[in-house]
Specification:
4 helices, 70% helix, mainly alpha, 109 residues, elongated, 0% strand
């Protein structure tokens, strides 16, 4: 990693912190009563956030424990082109699907 990129320790910390935020969001969303017709997408959204939070915590653990070459490969695969690639993470795809279902089922005013 170059000097302008975060260290692996910093990257692991950020992944853990972001995972905690995502887990907290799932906890806050779960008890909400969704509007009619959105129960399925709400459940999928909550599940996606739970899985994504776990994914981020797992990623932080891998960053801390894998050899640097494996971490670099993992980071390059997960953050393709320097940006997070949700197509490579099933939990992110689930969140995207739930949001798509929500938009499709939302009443038009």
């Amino acid at each position: 990693m170059s000097a302008d990129q975060p260290s692996l320790v910093e990257l692991a910390i950020v992944c853990d912190e972001f995972g905690g935020i995502v887990n907290d969001l799932a906890v806050r969303l779960e008890p909400l009563d969704p509007p009619a017709g959105m129960t399925s997408s709400h459940a999928k959204l909550v599940e996606g956030f739970q899985e994504f939070g776990s994914f981020l915590h797992d990623l932080a653990t891998k960053i801390r424990t894998l050899p640097a070459a494996q971490v670099e490969k993992l980071v390059n695969e997960t953050f393709s082109g320097g940006a997070f690639d949700p197509s490579r993470v099933p939990a992110a795809a689930k969140i995207d699907d739930a949001l798509g279902e929500d938009a499709a089922n939302r009443p038009v005013h």
